[in-house]
Amino acid sequence: MKIEVFDIPLEGLNIELEDTPKIDGVTITQPFKAILSLDKKGLEVLVKGIITGEVELECSRCLKDYKMQIKTLIELNYHPIEELNREELVELKRDEMDVDFYREGLIDTDDIIRDQILLNIPMKPLCSEDCKGLCPICGTDLNKFECQCEVKEIDPRMAVLQSLLRRMKKYG
Ligand SMILES: [Zn+2]
Ligand SMILES: [Zn+2]
């Protein structure tokens, strides 16, 4: 949905909308709902609200698909990109964390929702904090089964820790 900044009334604008943006590599399993309020101060627009929805991600350890709820509060300060020169842009970016820009007098709520989804997807998705992952040798899902593989190579960091522990036991 595109909102004309010119059309935002002085008392502000409240909107509720649903959107299922297409994002490469992201499966949306529940449409995203946004409840937003827009307030205008000159050419600046403050967009506040809440965005909720659900995506399906692949666990980076066990490769299982799992669903993740996204619920995020936003507070964005929109400036018209055409009104700014480069120096002002730099100033704004330094002063305000959540500055965004609109073009040609239009704020695109699709972009807001898309950005929030991307911001909330973890770099390394995990189906659960303590996911055991797959056995590196036989590929068994260690969350469900145990396997008999002997993992011979010990992570060098673990080896250091183990020898440290042995020494502590000796002297402790
Ligand atoms: Zn997992
Ligand atoms: Zn195994």
Can you walk me through this structure?
The structure is a single chain. The chain has 3 helices and 7 strands. The protein is of the alpha+beta class. A 5-stranded mixed β-sheet has the order 2-3-4-5-6, covered by helices on one side. A two-stranded antiparallel ribbon has the order 1-7. Helices cover 22% and strands 37% of the residues. The radius of gyration is 24 Å and the shape is elongated. It has 2 domains: 2-120, no CATH class; 132-172, no CATH class. One zinc ion binds next to loops.
Q: What does this entry show, briefly?
A:
The chain is built from 3 helices and 7 strands. The chain is of the alpha+beta class and about 170 residues long. The longest helix has 16 residues.
The amount of helix comes to 10-25%
Backbone shape? elongated
Q: Could you list the spans in which at least 5 consecutive residues all have pLDDT below 50?
A: none
**How many beta-strand segments?**
7
Give the names of the bound compounds: zinc ion
Question: What structural class do helix, strand and pairing data support?
Answer: alpha+beta
Listing every helix as H and every strand as E from the N terminus to the C terminus, the arrangement reads: EEEEEHEEHH
Strand order of the largest sheet: 2-3-4-5-6
Q: Number of DSSP helices?
A: 3
Give the biggest beta sheet: 5 strands, mixed
| Rg over alpha carbons | 24 Å
Instruction: Name the average pLDDT.
Output: 88
Domain unit count? 2
- Provide the β-strand percentage band: 35-45%
Head-to-tail CA distance between termini: 67 Å
